[in-house]
Request: fold
Amino acid sequence: MKFSRLSYATGFVLSLGLTSAAFLLVWRQTNSDSTAFSEKFLITWVIALALAQLFTQLVFFLHLGRERSPRWNLTVLSFAALVVLILVLGSLWIMNNLNYHQANEMTPAETDKYILEDEGIH
Amino acid sequence: MNLLGRLNLDAIWQGPVTAIGQLTVLLSGIAIVGLLFYFKRWKWLWREWLTTVDPKKIGVMYIIVAVAMGLRAFSDALMMRAQQAVASGDNSGFLSSDTYQQVFSAHGSIMIFFMAMGLMFGLFNLIVPLQIRARDVAFPFLNATSFWLFFAGAMLFNTSLLIGGFAATGWLAYPPLSELAYSPGPGVDYWIWGLQIAGIGSLLSGINFFVTILKMRAPGMNLMKMPMFCWSVLGSLVLILFAFPILTATLTMLALDRSLGMHFFTSDFGGNPMMYVNLIWAWGHPEVYILILPAFGIFSEVVATFSRKRLFGYTSMVWAIWAIVVLSFIVWLHHFFTMGAGANVNAFFGIMTMAIAVPTGVKIFNWLFTMYRGRIKFATPMLWFMGFVATFTVGGVAGVIMAIPPADFQLHNSLFLVAHFHTMLIGGVVFGFFAGLIYWFPKIFGFKLNERIGRYAFWCWFFGFLLAFIPLYILGLMGATRRLDGYDASLGWQPLFIVAGVGVLIIGLGIALQALQVIVSIRQRNANLDKTGDPWNGRTLEWATASPSVFYNFARITPVNDRDAWWAEKQVKTPPPKPRYEDIEIPKNTSAALIMAFLAFNFGFGYVWHMYWLSVLCFFGIITCLIIRSLKDEHEYTLPAHDVAKVEAAIRRRYA
Amino acid sequence: MKEEEMASATAESKTVFGFWVYLMTDCVLFASLFATFVVLRNNTYGGPSGQDLFSLSFVLSETIILLVSSFSIGLAWLAAREGNKRPVLSFMALTFLLGLAFLTLEIKEFNHLYQEGNSWRRSGFLSAFFTLVGTHGAHITAGLIWMATMMVLIYRRGIYATNVRRVTMLALFWHFLDVIWIFIFSIVYLMGIIG
Reply:
């Protein structure tokens, strides 16, 4: 049996582990007075664990990669992943950048100085 | 609770100009119903058209609806040109500002979603299965559902004309104008649901044809042997699959703002209207490539056939398609360079936008190289191609100008922009689809269109287009803003607007000639019958069937060995052995698609008029339809082999 | 018999692939909602943020419930491929109950927020939250309706090619919803709590 119960059980246990790890990290952060981890550290790890669980579930639950050639499922998924990344990261970049000319609480002169520096014009 | 929501009879009257449109729609509807009664064709209509799952019939229906909606949107164009030609200085024209805004919003929305997308899906249905030697699409029931959802969306748009009025927000309905605070009436809701319903149909078609092309090609037809039209369609489908969900999500969020008091795009409570602009163009840019790629595919077929030569640079054409597909997902900010982003962001998207012109250029050169040393026949489809080359390249260059952010700061939302995208859409998409319709007309209907009238129509369109839009390029460069219903007399722009008005009248003459062409061709059909199934000496497999094709397309799915498979098969001199026929599974007709679309229409109508009980009822009705349909496992009947043999024998006798 | 098998194999590969393609488009739909959420995450308009509203243990229970249900529908699918009607029904019933439990918890959370005045009308952040999580919940609901229908069909007609194909698609759908949930609990809840 190609898609065995063992495969599913492995995926389940791994996912459980990855989920618990992510929750544990955040729980430690909120329940201890010492903020041992920086916000950036936590966010990076939460995302990394999420991506790891994504791949785990793709392989063990959705059986990705086991298709014989031509691998259309994988191709379509890759393109979808590309579009998702472009949309989410692109939107973040763009929407954040829309404040470029309105850096908060700067006078027009300070804004000019900021822009000149940021664009490397001397 | 008021059962009729906010529906009331006062919403019918919208002024005398609109009344003319309302009368036209009503009289057309009455005429159609009347003719059906007079000729006693209701049963025929139900059996042959309303419940069909045959893509060839569905394709014809798409084209009929697309043409009808196109005529409506063209009358909007006539009104706009007339208004701008007379409204100068003290003269405020004959349209109120609110009506004018509804007119340009309807014009854009209808042309893109119902005229262009309709013609496109129509050609997909008619030609793709034939070109890959398949009998049908992957999911025939889904196909019918897609068409009827498209129809339901179009009917919502037409209903807005009859009662309530349309959105006055432009074809993309930017917030905050499209939010409840500034557009409290039913117009924007009609826009949202017409597009949402039609959009779901488009997405489902995307899935359907994608699976069809990837999984149902004839044995031996690997992708690099597939006709270029199918490659272009595949590229367009990938764009549909990954862009339309963005539209669905964004329209939903706007609807939620309007109906549940959410704050995605409101000006207060933490909404961000600019996010709407970002999302809608993340869909909107791929959308325009969705429209142009199939037109490019049509030109690949037409140029090769009428140059009597293989398409030049097949492999580079394929790569160009995929370069366009990928690039079209990373250029969308060029639609809002002026929205406040810094130079880095603007520069990135500007450069990507300029890059996308390169694969397009590759394609144009490949077509020209195909013509070089070919034995060219200047049938009407070739004329449309030449018109395309002349206009599209120039308009494309105008786009490259606007890809430069500093230049765009001057040209954004000017008439220069309007001229550019109309050049792309008319010179590219419309000219392409016209070429395709004329080229494939004999395959669909069994006789050729009248060439002479077709030529006259082309020249009217070509010169009419130039007259209508060159003034707009000039006006845009001089600073004319788009979407205005009148301009200051002191600017001295009126003569240019008058020239543009004359241009659109000449286009109108072209359209009238096309209508005449169809009528005359029908009357002359016996003289122009397609007697071989291959009237143009074509190269691809759709010409290997009867004209019109028999309902199961091909009696036998024989393997394919070459690119330009039909051309290769024609070169083989020895006659084929006597064919052995097999039973063929044919999908049965069904009314479920029509019923679900009718429920979808009423869902939308209920939402628009705040008759939420109706929407809820229709929603559960659709789910019920789906469950009922799923209870049956078999949706096909078997055509026995000896019946297939009889049909094939009849065709051979007809063509003997 | 062989021809029927071949026909159903082609039908399966077409239909299941088509369903996979639909799931990929649904990814982009959710991506649009995620993008909007992320852009609006700080637009609380003076109202509460994720840190104020989300409970770690509550979300953990929802997550485990959904994960177990994803495992059980996988087992149902395996049984379907082997033609065993009883385990298919039992595992599907388990999945259904777990899914219902998940939905109940989610509705409780939404209702709690609504009663406290922190509904979708309160701010851009909350609109995005309710819509993203709510859309996932709507998909779960659709899955449950589909599951109930499938259980009735399998109970009455047993396991055969068409039903196996449908169970395959339902399993894919349910797995996909758990995958989306990974990103919801990570980006919405965990990152919301981190601040």
Notes: The longest helix of chain B spans residues 97-131. The CA atoms of residues 414 and 482 of chain B lie 5 Å apart. DSSP finds 20 helices and two strands in chain B.
